[in-house]
Amino acid sequence: MNQKLKTSAGFTLVELLVVITIIGILASIALVSLNSARVKARDARRLADVRQIALALEFCYNEIGTYIPASTFPSAGQALACGGTTYITAMPGNPGGGNYEYGVNNDSNPQKYVLGTLLEANNSALLTDTDGTVYGVDCNDFVYCIAP
């Protein structure tokens, strides 16, 4: 009598569970790494936006002789214009939501303002920014502020 051995063409349940577990672990590691990259990308966008807005504020100062009042600082999506010239057609929005913070005191010191944004991660830019509370803007901890 010649008996034929049955060979299985599929995987066992244990093998499938091991493979699914390994894929799950690798996927979670990838997501954690990706989240860190997203945080850095949002912070880089915030820093670029603040520099762009600061440049537009300097153009406004050159045109009208003062910085725009804090009460007229545009929200995300609105235009930044002064003296009949539009310098930013649509203010950038903070990638984390909300607006960028702006403070100025044209009465006592018309040549100074502060512009800030909250960063999500510790960034080397925080070493060279303005610290403290300036013109009502809190520039402590993870808040990146520039003031000319």
Strand content: 15-25%
Major beta sheet summary: 3 strands, antiparallel
User: What is the number of beta strands?
Assistant: 7
Strand arrangement, major sheet: 3-4-7
What is the string of helix and strand elements? HEEEEEEE
Global Rg? 27 Å
Outline, from the CA principal axes? elongated
Total number of distinct structural domains: 1
The low-confidence runs, each spanning 5 or more residues with pLDDT under 50, are: none
Structural class: alpha+beta
Averaged pLDDT: 86
Continuous helix count: 1
What does this structure look like?
The chain is elongated. The protein has 148 residues and is of the alpha+beta class. Strands 3-4-7 form a 3-stranded antiparallel beta sheet, covered by helices on one side. A two-stranded antiparallel ribbon has the order 1-2. Strands 5-6 form a two-stranded antiparallel sheet. It is built from 1 helix and 7 strands, in the order αβββββββ. It has one domain (14-146). It has one helix at residues 13-64, and strands spanning 80-82, 85-88, 101-104, 113-118, 133-134, 137-138, 143-146. A hairpin with a 2-residue loop joins strand 1 (80-82) and strand 2.
